[in-house]
Input
Amino acid sequence: MGAHSCLLAVALLLVVAFAGKSSAQLSTNFYSKSCPKLLTTVRSAVKSAVSRERRMAASLLRLHFHDCFVNGCDGSILLDDTPTFTGEQTARPNNRSVRGFEVIDDIKSKVEKVCPGIVSCADILAIAARDSTVLVKGPNWKVRLGRRDSKTASLAAANSGVIPPPTATLNELITRFQARGLSAKDMVALSGSHTIGQARCVTFRARIYNETNINSNFARTRQERCPSAANSGDDRLAPLDVKTAAFFDNKYYKNLVKQKGLLHSDQILFDGGSADSLVRSYSKNPKAFAADFAAAMIKMGNIDPLTGSQGEIRKKCGRPNSSS
Output
């Protein structure tokens, strides 16, 4: 009898442990009862923002990426600096580069009106990234939800190299994505987000003037608006996808095959290395790219979320509740 009771206790412990683990996982219907209007509210606000400025689709997608790669998808990138706190927004990969914070604030305020204190800013980022992609004719996917917001952010972590710079080598890209649980295939697919959006001259100046694996006409065209001298025209923009910068498609990969990648970290994906075959495949098969991109976005959204009683649900995305 004692042995039987012991076995029963162990079994119950396993059930409880398993239940605890499963409850900490993200779910596509997390807010279906607590905030049924969430998805339509976010979609409407994102649609308004992207209709005002098409580039915002890329900006919101990038915000989610830069959030997830630093200590997980916890909304930490949204925390504003204060006189006593320095967050991630002025880190090297983010400073004068990431944008769209006011759009997330607007979405949050609208969501708070329909269900106050329920939905995290981290989840709003994840939904906005998906909606942005769909609005510019990209793939759709079911966003897993249930993330909670961090109470702090780390400038040091954001500066630590976890976010690959535009000068990254292929090996650095693979290594940094693998460190976040993403495969080389995921990395190549997620790089396809550069089918939309713009980059600043300072991020591609060295490539268009110094590199040889670049189409000469393409380089000359980019040089017209990006002077070779440092600190000259640094903020001038160029489309990451020279063909269809306003639409989410597979032209990014077609550009790479023609040596028309804008950033060093773009063209390095097709430069005689291990990613060449996948780039060529995506350049010929838009459906395969769309499917792999959606799958990789779901994986990226699963990076180290705060769940259950961890973190908090911020009232305002730019500051923790303790300072509200």
Summary: The first strand starts at residue 198 and ends at 200. Residues 3-23 have pLDDT under 50 and may be disordered.
